[in-house]
């Protein structure tokens, strides 16, 4: 096992107003893992992603990243700017310090990667929801993140677009041309998607981690029944 984990949480809790959104989380993430966060609405998935991204400081406990660490986050909705598709991707690179010329060049490569190069000069707002999410994915991927955080990235898409974005995520996370495998942490309500994409699954309830298992163990009904009854109820669709 790598001596320095990509990320480590120790006794981390997060309080949002009156609510403890995360409670006493311990988690160690190694490079190359594809971690799925599952649990009912309000269980803490978005809160955990925001903490992992550094958007929210923990209220208690600690969080450490391997340094330096390039990371990017993709939200449920793509949050594109009112300009061209290519501009949207290039801006992220320019903000990260690249020259505008270089940013525009790399933006086009990233758009080719998600199959949208021919729409590069279109207004982003004119694209379908699935295409917009692919633009957001290109924008994140162009930054060459070592850690990619995704909050229900396909939840707002129609079934066809869901499959497209999911397939891209699969390709990106297993890209053998990268010097280091990308580490993925994604929240999902779609258990099929979790099976297809994840290597490890965390089940959250009330801001606590109630199960943290390799993906095959997580979908092993007999194992869950004995040790993780809450996770089993969730997998069976018995938790709203
Ligand atoms: N800005 C906020 N202020 C207060 N409570 C919040 C805020 N955001 C989320 N919460 C609460 O934190 C808990 C976890 O929410 P969240 O992380 O969004 O869960 P999930 O993404 O799994 O649906 C919920 O009880 C939710 O109501
Ligand atoms: Mg959420």
Automatic annotation (TrEMBL):
GO molecular function, one term: ATP binding
Domain of life of the organism encoding this protein: Bacteria
Entries under SUPFAM superfamilies matching the protein: P-loop containing nucleoside triphosphate hydrolases (SSF52540)
Keywords: ATP-binding, Cell membrane, Membrane, Nucleotide-binding, Translocase, Transport
UniProt-listed InterPro entries: AAA+_ATPase, ABC_transporter-like_ATP-bd, ABC_transporter-like_CS, ABC_transporter_ATP-bind, P-loop_NTPase
A matching Pfam family: ABC_tran
Domain ABC transporter: 7-231
Family that this chain belongs to: Belongs to the ABC transporter superfamily.
Protein name: Phosphate ABC transporter ATP-binding protein
């Amino acid at each position: 096992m790598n001596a320095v984990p990509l990320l480590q949480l120790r006794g981390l809790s997060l309080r949002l107003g009156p609510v403890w959104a995360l409670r006493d989380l311990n988690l160690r993430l190694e490079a190359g893992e594809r971690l799925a966060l599952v649990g009912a609405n309000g269980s803490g998935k978005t809160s955990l992603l925001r903490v992992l991204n550094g958007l929210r400081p923990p209220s208690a406990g600690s969080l450490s990243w391997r340094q330096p660490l390039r990371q990017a986050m993709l939200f449920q909705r793509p949050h594109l700017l009112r300009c061209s598709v290519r501009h949207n991707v290039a801006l992220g690179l320019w903000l990260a310090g690249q020259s505008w010329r270089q940013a525009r060049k790399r933006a086009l490569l990233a758009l080719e990667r998600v199959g949208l190069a021919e729409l590069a000069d279109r207004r982003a707002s004119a694209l379908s929801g699935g295409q917009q999410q692919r633009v957001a994915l290109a924008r994140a991927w162009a930054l060459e993140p070592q850690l990619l955080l995704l909050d229900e990235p396909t939840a707002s898409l129609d079934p066809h677009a869901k499959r497209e974005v999911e397939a891209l995520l699969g390709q990106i996370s297993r890209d053998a041309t990268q010097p280091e495998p990308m580490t993925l942490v994604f929240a999902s309500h779609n258990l099929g998607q979790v099976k297809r994409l994840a290597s490890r699954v965390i089940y959250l309830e009330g801001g606590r981690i109630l199960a943290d298992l390799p993906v095959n163990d997580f979908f092993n009904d007999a194992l869950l029944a004995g040790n993780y009854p809450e996770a089993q109820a969730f997998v069976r669709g018995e938790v709203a």
